[in-house]
Specification:
The structure is a single chain. With 626 residues, the protein is an alpha+beta fold. 36% of the residues lie in helices and 19% in strands. It has an eight-stranded mixed beta sheet, with no helix packed on it. Strands 16-17-18-20-19 form a five-stranded mixed beta sheet. The chain has a four-stranded antiparallel beta sheet with strand order 9-10-15-12, with no helix packed on it. A hairpin with a 5-residue loop joins strand 4 and strand 5. Helix 14 crosses helix 15. The longest helix is centred in the middle third of the chain and has 24 residues. The protein is globular and about 85 Å long. The two termini are 46 Å apart. Bound molecules: ligand BES and zinc ion. Zinc ion binds next to helix 5.
């Protein structure tokens, strides 16, 4: 009996709160409304230390404990700050860590205080030198001679540098005071507070409520160049001009976004161009998207990433997925908006090309997930309880999500759908919603006079069922017909390598040409291609990716050193994951992957390490391909 009780207690304490399977927060009892940070950066010890003061609203008068999310934090004290400013010590308990969720922090309230509806709780702490949100870079990993730090909150990493309710269903405003070495500059996903501050002190305030995963910090040798009066670029001095030139279209993009999705509600939109180790192509931190330098191709051919992060200013940041099971609401709508904006800004041809390439990737992802015994992960609404939310990051959320939205557009017709989109953003601005809420809102909207015919079954096939439904729109792939023909003619020797019409190709056509090549392509042809067009680890990152995927697919060993260099140079999820996933398809590939990973690992962000390890060392018990 006794043992049984113990077991039950353990199971209950390690369980996340039902509303969001990835948070311990009891949001029906308390909600955190505001976070005030006061943190120092220790570049030697790789730690942040200081205080987080949470303004907490009590919803349940009977609640006498506040539960927060943390991961690897060292907490030294918790105080209740009384109206008078007096600090009263509160007892707290940090539970044993769960590998996915981190440690539940429980703060006890004495009887006296449980009746107040708003209170300030100050937590003194320092982060671990392995905080999963933080990546500390040595000067050699940057474009200059100074160290660098950045945070990556999405999906559940903010808890590793701030103790709070780390669920996107809660929204907070924040302010921050950050102390850095005097020669470094801090930037945040917030507005800078000007005023006389001592050297090495930086102050910020974010007045719009955002989900905790969007609280972001970067520290480095940073400079700013304005593009117009509300946009600009931050980066290291040696890269500033190049970056500003590449992203010159930013003001136009923002205007196009507003025309489509409604007013831009975050005042400024700046980009922070990161060092190569940055874990993503882009991260939509509000007011300041973090961007991988791999997006700078020299010819603006990869700006779709910028358009994508900008589009999150509406889908994701303004209307936010309430849990990571609803991730498609963020990424599917954003990928749809990205596509529409590319079409508007750069023409139908380019949009169609990007769409066709992404569609091939989606088909492959659905096939792979199904083969791996994960067909459930090909439905839009995910069931990630008990797993890392990072397992939900796939083309399904992005591309299947995008095609679902395109399906809606097809049914509504474009003008009516544009009105629907506007209404959707306006109705849910600064809210976090789940898939059910979206579904119910859509069904209700369909009741309006003049709305198109659509059945709940048709909608549910997209949302809840695996794979692509019968209502999948027709994907236009005709733009690639000429390249596809050249690819076949070249394979069969009808076109010589130096006679390829490559000088007329835009990067997307190169990508298609390489993606179309089979695994048994003769090595002699690969050698010619490489020698004639200088394919390798440098230049346009998307072309390099497709080339290196082909190198792996064909086992073309002479190019392995390029593959290794590429994987040591970049830390960007999509590039790294695509290549390790290609490597893990064969035994010899996996062996090569393990060798390269051993060298590359120290330069990768914690979540990238996990993703690569999932590919190279699949969990025993989980069915794998073949
Ligand atoms: N929000 C994502 C990045 C992300 C997703 C970080 C999930 C952590 C967890 C961002 O908007 C994104 O999708 N970036 C893409 C680029 C985009 C053009 C597909 C990337 O990093 O490649
Ligand atoms: Zn995105």
């Amino acid at each position: 009996m006794r043992a049984l009780i113990l077991v039950t207690t353990a199971a209950v304490t390690s369980m996340a709160h039902a509303a969001d399977p990835h948070s311990y927060a009891e949001t029906d009892k308390f909600v955190v409304r505001h976070v005030a940070l006061d943190l120092g950066t220790d570049f030697e010890a790789h730690r942040l230390a200081g205080t987080a003061e949470l303004t907490v609203e009590q919803l349940d008068p009977a609640a006498d404990r506040l539960v927060l999310d943390t991961r690897d934090l060292e907490i030294s004290a918790v105080h209740l700050i009384e109206m008078s400013g007096r600090a009263r010590v509160l007892a707290f308990k940090l539970a044993e860590p769960d590998p996915v969720l981190g440690s539940k922090l429980t703060i006890e309230f004495p009887h006296c205080c449980a009746a107040t509806t708003q209170m300030r709780i100050r937590i003194a702490y320092r982060t671990s030198n392995e905080a999963s949100a933080l990546q500390w870079l040595e000067p050699v990993q940057t474009y200059g001679a100074k160290p660098y730090l950045y945070s990556q909150g999405q999906a559940i990493h903010t808890r590793s540098w701030i103790p709070l309710q780390d669920t996107p269903s809660v929204r907070v405003t924040y302010d921050a005071r950050i102390r850095t070495p005097p020669d470094l500059v801090a930037v945040m996903s917030a507005s800078r507070v000007d005023g006389a501050l001592p050297a090495g002190e930086h102050a910020f305030t974010m007045k719009q409520p955002i989900p905790p995963y969007l609280i972001a910090l970067a520290v480095g040798d940073l400079r700013f160049q304005a593009l117009d009066n509300r946009t600009g670029v931050w980066t290291e001095p040696s890269r500033l001009q190049t970056a500003a030139r590449e992203f010159e279209d930013l003001p136009r993009m923002l205007e196009a976004g507003e025309e489509m999705a409604g007013p831009y509600r975050w005042d400024r939109y700046d980009l922070l161009v990161m060092p190569r180790a940055f874990a993503f192509g882009g991260m939509e931190n509000p007011r300041l998207s973090f961007i991988s330098p791999s997006v700078i191709a020299g010819d603006r051919s990869l700006v779709a990433v910028i358009v994508h992060e900008l589009a999150h200013s509406w889908s994701g940041n303004l209307v936010t997925n309430a849990t990571w099971d609803d991730f498609w609401l963020n990424e599917g709508f954003t990928t749809y908006l990205e596509h529409r904006l590319i079409e508007k800004l750069y023409g139908e041809r380019r949009a169609e090309m990007e769409g066709a390439i992404a569609y091939e990737e989606l088909l492959r992802t659905i096939r792979d997930l199904t083969d791996e015994g994960r067909p459930g992960d090909t439905a839009l609404q995910l069931k990630l309880a008990g797993r890392s939310p990072d397992e939900g990051i796939s083309d399904v959320a992005y591309q299947k999500g995008r095609w679902f939205v395109s399906f809606l557009e097809e049914r509504f017709g474009r003008p009516a759908f544009d009105a629907f989109l506007r209404a959707y953003f306006d109705a849910h601005a600064f809210q976090s919603i789940d898939t059910e809420t979206f579904r119910a809102w859509l069904l209700e909207y369909l009741e309006r006079p003049g709305a198109p015919a659509m059945t709940a079954e048709e909608i549910d096939a997209w949302i809840y069922r695996p794979g692509l439904p019968a209502t999948m729109p027709k994907v236009a792939t005709g733009v690639f017909a000429p390249v596809d023909k050249v690819a076949v003619d070249w394979q069969s020797g009808r076109i010589a390598t130096d006679a390829l019409p490559a000088k007329d190709w835009i990067p997307m056509e190169w990508v298609r040409f390489l993606d179309e090549q089979p695994a048994d392509l003769e090595h002699e042809k690969l050698a010619e291609l490489r020698a004639t067009y200088g394919l390798g680890a440098d230049g346009n990152a998307e072309i390099a990716l497709s080339w290196l995927e082909l190198v792996i697919r064909t086992g073309y060993e002479p190019a392995y050193p390029d593959l290794e260099r590429f994987l040591l140079d970049t830390g960007r999820w999509r590039l790294v994951e695509s290549l390790f996933s290609e490597l893990s398809r064969t035994e010899s590939g996996r062996a090569l992957g393990e060798r390269i990973y051993a060298k590359a690992k120290p330069g990768y962000h914690a979540s990238i390490r996990q993703a690569v390890e999932r590919l190279l060392y699949p969990e025993p018990g989980r069915a794998t391909a073949q």
